[in-house]
Model the fold of this input.
Amino acid sequence: MAVAAERTETAEPILRLRGVGRRFGGLQAVDGVDLEIRPGERRALLGPNGAGKTTLFNLIAGEFPPTAGTIELFGEDVTETPARLRARLGMARTYQQSRVFVGLSVEDNIYLSVLGVQTGHVFPLRSAKRDAPLRAKARAAAAEVGLGGRLDSLVGELSHGERRQLAIGMARAAEPRLMMLDEPAAGLSRGERQILTELLLALPSDVTLLLIEHDMDVALRVAQWVTMMHDGRVVAEGTPAEIRANQTVHDLYLGSRYYDE
Amino acid sequence: MSAVANAAAAKRSGPDAVTIGGWALLAVVGVVLLIAPAIFDSYWVSQILTQALWLGIAAVSLTFLNRYGGMVSLAQVAIYGVAGFAMANVVHTLNSEGGLNLGWTPWLGVAFGIGVAVLVGLLFGAIASRSYGIYFLMITLALSLFVFYFFGQVTQLSGFGGVRSVSRPGLVGDTITHPTPLYYVCLGCSVAVYALLRYVVRTPFGVALQGVRDDPERMRSLGYNVPLHRTLAFTLGAFVAAIAGILSVWFDTQISPGSIDITQTIAVLIIAVIGGLSRLEGAWLGAIAYAVINYYARQHTPTLGLWLNPGRFATIIGIVFLLIVLLSPDGLIGIGGKIRRAIGRRYGGGGARPAESEEAGAGEQAEVPAAAGTPASGTRGGLNQRRA
Ligand SMILES: Nc1ncnc2c1ncn2[C@@H]1O[C@H](COP(=O)(O)OP(=O)(O)OP(=O)(O)O)[C@@H](O)[C@H]1O
Ligand SMILES: [Mg+2]
Done:
């Protein structure tokens, strides 16, 4: 893909972490992470189990505050900003364990994602007229992730793979500037991974993507730039080719199940 | 999941759509309720049906909060008590029997009572909105006890033993000699409340509320103000409960702290549970069952040595409730679903009932029994337990 060329060092970063750390009791899950991501970039976050990748996502999304450092999103310091306001700035994420609304239909799930970033969504008696374009957007996003035929299905009845698709559809539907996906390929079949990879490659070029992925095939095909984490710290950064050749990365992944895949 | 089941799932529009069969049943029930004063004697109309209708409104405020908001509230009776006391104090009471007796017109009293209860609901909702599961339950229980003791102790507002002979609007009239008008008022309010809640749950607010029920943290990360949503839902529940509170005062002609004590709180919880928490209709079903069982147990409890005598009718009531809940975790609604499924199984092979095949989608008769069961009861039965 040609997007690699768009990584211009001059553009203002969309996300900037400075010395971000998070401690859980005696455990330093994330430790002094500096990270800069530019608009339109596709970045993979790799690292063995327990490296602190998901924790870093949670810090960026605002699930809990960092114990050290600052986080800037779209040029604003959001270190103290609550999660729901960060979402409204234009950030969407998925979770390692799919978190969808099992008591609602596929369409309603995606619709909630669209609605969440609208202003005045809380007003109880919003008119159906104002609502129609949001519904249309939700249905379009469902079709995009291959759930167009299951709009009215209860999410509780979906398969694991379909829930993963739904989670990505929800993230897409909010039309975020920054999209963060936590292991979207986990538990998917080979065919489903292929579809997922294509979906990610087809994202509009102005969407910035931060991707945690153990599946090297998916991660290295989609990403132009890779950050490697271990024990809460960033241990390597570079292009997929550089990462493949990096000795530290080999040491971390060698013999592990991920490298074999 | 099979293609057939997929088709069935795709056919219905949401987890709690009313089916053709459901509409037919609703229509029959509606007609019976409309002509009830002509077919039942006045005791039945008053003590069973009217009471069940207003109790059903109180219970549906709980069912709504649980089914769509994942909140089990024990404050609904307290809130309807606030509405009842607020109204009873400002309107004219005959012979000034307790209360402030400000002499307002009855309709002004209604507006005031509901208004105060909604404000109290907003406050209580804001207090409880950040708690989940058992903690939410405990907070609402505490608020309910607070209201009970408040009215028990502030006798300026509750008189000694209640505010009696509360004046009613001309529309309702004397409920003792002419129970029919109040019956129709309660029926009208029930229909209005049911329609309102069904409408609300399909609005953007209602869908968001269900999202909050399923995963509040996920909703937060989608940009929603979760405590605000829960507070507003609780306030809507308070509005519904307040209507029940007004009707209860008209029904009893009085209100006392005893009308909103812990026994009544539990009674409304029982009504909601035996009716079935998976559908709003369950609240009124439970209320009818409660009123009927209550009535017959008091009349006909047999004497069985030391174990049972007419004075122990409460034992019978308890046993019947236990049986209902044991037979079906989703109460009477769940039992209704089982019966429908049994009928579907019996006749499903040859010719499915029109209503059933409508629900399952045309041409899938072999799958009818499995696909046409109660859509919601499987996943939504019982109290919602949220992580704390
Ligand atoms: N909320 C929490 N409380 C306590 N410890 C936590 C919490 N979240 C994460 N941890 C710990 O922090 C460390 C990093 O976890 P994290 O989930 O970020 O790793 P990860 O890189 O996402 O791993 P995986 O590849 O297994 O998903 C782990 O040791 C984990 O047990
Ligand atoms: Mg993780």
Q: What stands out?
A: Residues 16-353 of chain B form a domain with the ABC transporter involved in vitamin B12 uptake, BtuC fold (CATH 1.10.3470).
